[in-house]
Amino acid sequence: QVHLVESGGGLVQPGGSLRLSCAASGFTFEGKGMRWDRQAPGKERELIARISIYSTGAQYADSVRGRFTISRDNAKKTLYLQMNNLKPEDTAVYSCATWSGEYRGQGTSVTVTS
After folding, report:
1. Which of 14, 33, 56, 113 could form a disulfide with 99 if both were Cys (CB 3.0 to 4.6 A apart)?
2. What is the pLDDT of residue 108?
């Protein structure tokens, strides 16, 4: 059974940092590109970062480039998203998924507010 379980969300002040994790099981994690999406209240879900199988290529949405870093540890079957200099507009539910969206986690909530 496939599981993607996100953790690390929470409440943070503007300018703060969070590190999200996504623990994978039930499929060949090291054989799939992975992505982080987010969905803000009242908005469509958007792709914000994705990473290739061997971490040789990472791509970011303009809204997070330079502030967020996606990474993965294939040995631990875990995907990460380091988020720095957070802004109120980063408030959303963040979910991890396989590159194609075949598998997706339930998400973790991030709220950026003073």
Report:
1. 33
2. 98
